[in-house]
Amino acid sequence: MRIMGVDLGDKKTGVAVSDALGWTAQGKSVIEAELTEEKLDYICSLIEQYNIEEVVVGLPKNMDGSLGPRAEKVLEFVEQLEDRIDLSVKTWDERLSTVAAERTLLEADLSRKKRKNVIDKMAAVVILQNYLDSKNP
Question: What is the mean pLDDT of the chain?
């Protein structure tokens, strides 16, 4: 069962996909689009390409667990995605996922420019891997 992880951003959206067994997350791409419709079209094409059965979208909660304006945008995006696909779409608390992704890239000794190009994809990997780990204790 392949699962897709999405780290939604205003300009860049990271996408990760699990292996067929649902154990590991691999970064697939970064969508560079500002229009929601373009993001939805691209995600739908990836869902078809990888035979995705479930989608997990990172939900940016505040450190106190409350939802801010950014989280409201994500929830609106999730609703629009659910209207377009006949799959389960879940949200996953993404607090500190970008920090974890940045730390991983720093440990890999990537230059600032290279980190900037892949940070969103890595954040999607962190979101998806955390979700997969919660399902497979």
Answer: 86
Write the CATH number of the domain with boundaries 2-135. 3.30.420.140
CB 2 within 8 A of CB 131: no
DSSP tally for the chain: helices H, then strands E: 4, 5
pTM: 0.85
Query: What is the DSSP pairing of strand 2-7 with strand 52-59?
Result: parallel
Q: What element of type H or E holds 12? A: strand 12-18
Locate 56 and state its tokens: 């997990």
67: which 2 tokens?
């939802």
42-66 per-position pLDDT tens digit: 999 999 999 999 999 999 887 787 8
How many angstroms separate the CA atoms of 109 and 99, rounded?
Answer: 15
Answer whether residue 113 shows pLDDT above 80: no
- Closest to 22 (Cα-Cα) out of 40, 41, 2, 6: 2
Q: Distance between CA 78 and CA 57 in Å, rounded?
A: 7
